[in-house]
Amino acid sequence: MSQLEVRDLHVTFGGLRAVDGMNFDVEQGEILCLLGPNGAGKSTTLDLICGKTQPTGGSIRFQNLEISQMWEFERARLGIGRKFQVPSVYKELTVAENLSVARSVKPGIWHALTSLPVRNSAKMREILDLVGLADKIGEPAGNLSHGETQWLEIAMLIAQDSRLILMDEPTAGMTIQETDRTARIFRSLKANHTLIVVEHDMSFVRTVADRIIVMNQGSKLAEGSIQEIESNEAVKTAYLGH
Amino acid sequence: MDVVLNQAFAGLSMASILLIIALGLAIIYGTMGVINLAHGEFVMLGAYTTWALQNHAGLGVVTALPLVFVAVAAVGWIIEKVIVQRLYTRPLDTILATWGIGIILQQAVRLGVGAESRFVRGPQWLSGNIEIGALVMSNYRIFVISFSLAILVVTWLLMTRTEFGMKLRAVIQNRGISECYGIEAKKVYSVTFAYGAGLAGIAGALITPLFSTIPTMGTGLVVDAFLVVIVGGLGSLMGTAAAALLIGEVTAIFSIVINDTLGRIAVLAGIILLIRFRPRGLFPSDIRR
Amino acid sequence: MQSRLLYDIIGLALFAGVILFGVPALFGYDGFELNTFSRYLSLAIVSMALALSWGTAGLLNLGQAATFGMGSYAMAMHLKLKASGDNLPDFMSWNNVEALPLIWAPFHSLTFTLLAGLLIPAAVGGLIAIFMFRARIAGVFVAVITLAFLVAFQLVVIEQQGLTGGQNGLTGLAPLVLFGWSVDIYSLSFYYLVGACLMIALVFGLYLTHSKFGLILRAIREDSERTRYFGYNVANYQTIIFSISAGLAGWAGMLYALVLEFASPTYMSVSFSLAIVIWCAVGGRESVLAAAVGAILVNLAEGRLSDVFVEGWHLLLGVLFLMVVMFMPRGIYGVIVDAGRAMRRKPVSKKEAQPFETSLNPKRES
Amino acid sequence: MKRREFLGQAGAVGTMGLASGLSVPALLSGVGRAYAAADDIPVGLLFSLTGAVAVVEHTLHDAALMAIEEINAAGGVHGKQLRAIIEDPASDPATYADRARRLMIRDKCVSVFGSYTSASRQAVLPVTEQRDNLYWYPTLYEGRECSRNVMYGGAVPNQQQDILLPWLVENFGKKIYMIGNNYVYPKEENNYCRILLNDLGGEVVHEEYVPMGHSDFSSVINRIRAEKPDVIFSTLVGDSDVAFARQYRAAELDPEKMPVCSLTRSEIEVKAIGGDAAAGHFSSAPYFMSNDTPENQKFVENYKARYGADSVTHFVSEAAYFQVYQFKAALEKLDPANISPTEIRDAAVGMSMLAPQGEILIDPNLHTHLWPKVGQWQSDGQAKVILQSEERITPKPYAAYPGQQCTGDGLVKS
User: Does the domain at residues D2-155+293-369 carry the CATH identifier 3.40.50.1820?
Assistant: First the structure.
């Protein structure tokens, strides 16, 4: 049984078939990269999995549970985390508070009413050390630089500790060093987490991807390892070959 | 049957007044996302300007209209420059600020002109009724209905057929990019705000022969106009017109079937349900962002 | 965050000192002044209640006056029944109501009244909240729906004259008897009763905002969408805080009806609702304490200024309010926080001084 | 009880008060009644200068203030000046209650003059009765109140309708259409009207109430057209009345065939309506500005001199004016060192004086005996009196409710 099974997934926006019959599986502990030209439906696929968009047809099973009709927060509680293309951290909250919101093992109201907003746990320090924000812990996130904001969001995803993490262009706007560091973090996450990553940076994809799916016009064009994809003729015509 | 016909006309008449007040609000809201709670006070200023022109210059309501438009638009322009412009980055605060402006305008008029109700004479040539069978229509109300339609058409043309309209729509779509192309968004906002205020002034001039002209006259109107804008769909001119018509007619029908109070309650309940299930309004605008 | 808590605790201690000891001493235990101040304190509760929903969770509730009114009517109904003895309340016989309406009957009991004044507004607030937040209504639409509800509710109350006393409201009330103590509203004990209610409400409010619950609400205020993907049921969080806020408003309403000795549909007017918004904004909507202080200060200023400028004080209030919105968007609280920060370390970050923004536009359906 | 006793008691408790805070209440119940024998006599003016009812209340304020200053200019009372303490309750009942407390408790006024609406009077009532103060209320109202602490200067239903209804039925017909704002005053007037109509064989074709401030009367006018009544019996107030009159006129309904007869429309509303739209319709009131008495000539002259040539007096501002003189006359009967609200009240009962409308008298039930009239509005904004009561009419606050009577001992039920 795969961790995530997507079958015949469809979504239509006013006549436009944004995702048109997607089928794929993702295994526990795998890093799957989604490639494709703009408008191929990559981000929409992530939206469908995390619940931002409701599918017009098809099924999404996560850990053998049908999730396509669930609310976003229910899916999140099952263990699906999402990073959006535009960095979205809470700018008015401090770094520590951002992590505390993200650390949502018990998202119920009663628990929230009976807990402190921020606990200085070893886990939190560990995560902050990992992304290099330990000295900014009390800083409002709005004061961080663009790169730091990206790191904070990644830290939040680690804190959330989702089994399946959906990443939309995590390295956009990063320097080469930062991209390398992100790649290292991703590889270290692999042990306990599954990742689906939408990314354009091919060198990054080469470093992290276990498997690649290339999308075009809402459906799967090709699937396989990096070598297989790079030698695929159809992909070359549609995407890589200009 | 007679009652139904007459009531349909009454609904149309209420709708025209709602429309003319709501139109300015809709433009301002649609363009810059500012909920102008001082809009009722612009209506009030329009009424008082009409009164002043009639009393001191002997102008009739209809001849005063262009002057009223210019005067109230000027006030709107100044307010936009001095106050509203500083608040575009925090839209919810504009509700509070414009409410404060409303209080100030109201009190300024009260202190300057006095609290008592002022009398504005309706145009003589529009007195009387047209009777078609049992349907009795007041000439002045027919005039207001036609005028509101004319304003709607003019505004629509202005938005779609002129260079200013093109600039305006560009700014609505994306302010940053428009500015790169040399459109001065600030100027566009100022002009739009002034135009919306001017329309409110015209509304004030037109309703003052029917209602009572006091400094607080705008307060009740703004809530209704605001509901019309929301029901119509943000920034949509035709939506605003349709919503005004709908609310006017439904109010008229309810008030004849039940009574005015329950009619109003029913309309409010309907509006709440509508916003709940169609938060983008009846006719969501395609030009908004 | 530590500093926020520190500010609030120091502030609460100072505030409690001023309210409990300073004010009575300052006014020489004068009954009239204490009564006036009791009025301000009860209004402080409704202002801090708005800070919970508006400041913390970003839900601008323009219907706060409706739930406030419900509380005041609950209390007034109890006292009216008491004043009427075995007879029907006078206004009912004027409206040809033959027997005591069913919904009035339980208000003979003080316990029921106190619970009803708190729980009915909370329940109504909760229902409106469920209705709105399940559909993800946000920003200005919350303001519109609550405003329309307020207008409709006030119309119903005025319309149902036989049940509510209509435009005149409920007057001719008996004094409240609490555990055998007949409450004299000009007494220091009554002042302390209201003061204690405010303190309890403030401590409760501070607890809420400084718990993880408050943190999640602030997160929702900033980006409700994002918060959902962390597994929080945003609608439930919003509903709970909305309902708590409405309940507190009802509580404030009960005290207000006691202070003024009548309940009136004007307590449920749009202008009263907007006045609550002003108090909250002037004090600072981010802190419940600041909102309470704002209510007291504005009312105090209104009381004093209207003595000096009989004709012009309304104008002055408008100008004052506009200045606050434009130049002190976070209210007095923001000024104090910024000053405190400036003292601790020299350069004040520009970004922090910015107010928070609440999304005005509906979430785009893409 | 004598004042000195109160002061003694208050002083004793006052010193204790600081020691033990909780015994202070004992002191406070005395505070409101300790009227210091100062150099002047504080009186409160509680009329809204801002907000929705300011249009009317400001004129009441003006009239009362003018009376106070006239009295002061003539040497005051017992050589003491009246000191007017002005508060603006801003048309909000809660603020009325608050400001009334200031006037009665803090400023120790011996009387407060104020308010127009029933709601505001009822808001002021609790503190007035507790402190045994005296509230001078100049407005016509619904009756059904019998406080020993309110001096009612305006007409009650029987004083407005007893001469009016037979005349209406005789001259215009039996079909009456009732329109009013939705609150207690219109409903009570209509209750009483129905009783009179019953005896006269009249008929109510429709009775309807619109919310306060309602301004679009298209539906009402359509219904009037459909029902074809003989008379419109209106108890609309303020802006609603103005809007109704203007739209009635715009709809070309003819006052000769279907007049509006109002219990509330006065010169001040007519000024806003415009003489043309008001002309031909009727109002029932004890006073019109055109009243031809020397007292009225003086009143109108002084008023215009003070507030401008285009200002108007009306039946409520007349009462606001004469009530200050009633207050003065009562004060004159008392020992200047020893005045209190209740003594002023007791001195005022049974007193008669020449008011602009004619000779009026204060009944033991604290309401006023008045001279009802019916006026027809002219296009110059003035009323022509076309019917005048031959005798002064006794106020019967509970006229619609047999078995209840308001007397000098309060409400008596039999």
Answer: no
